[in-house]
Design brief:
115 residues, globular
Length: 115
């Protein structure tokens, strides 16, 4: 289904740390994120042959808290934490090499979570 790919594309595009977004903050250029943490070595943008089985995900189906978004509290009943990594590059050109990889997380919260 198109929406499956598109929601993934949206999350990747919203990531504030990859795709050279560190440059404007005084940092080195950064490459595309990789969510397939079980694979080594890492691959910019992720290995196209990898599956959900290579992702590292934590889920809390009875999340008791609230997140504040735009000043308004939102009750969350289910949350997920997805680990990912992105490369920090030696420069902004296509010939740049990977200096090192940074690991971080994407948090996803479902309001009410079906409860």
């Amino acid at each position: 289904m198109a929406q499956n790919a598109e929601i993934g594309n949206l999350i990747m595009r919203l990531n504030p740390y990859t795709n050279n977004r560190l440059v404007g903050k005084g940092g080195s250029p950064a490459g595309d994120m990789d969510v397939f943490m079980a694979l080594d070595p890492p691959t910019q943008g992720g290995d196209p042959a990898a599956t959900i089985l290579e992702m590292q995900l934590e889920v809390d189906a009875a999340y008791p808290g609230e997140w504040t978004f735009k000043g308004q509290p939102h009750r969350l009943g289910k949350t997920a934490r997805l680990k990912y990594r992105f490369p920090v590059m030696s420069g902004p050109t296509a010939a740049a090499t990977v200096l090192y990889w940074v690991e971080d997380y994407v948090l996803i919260g479902f309001e009410d979570g079906g409860i």
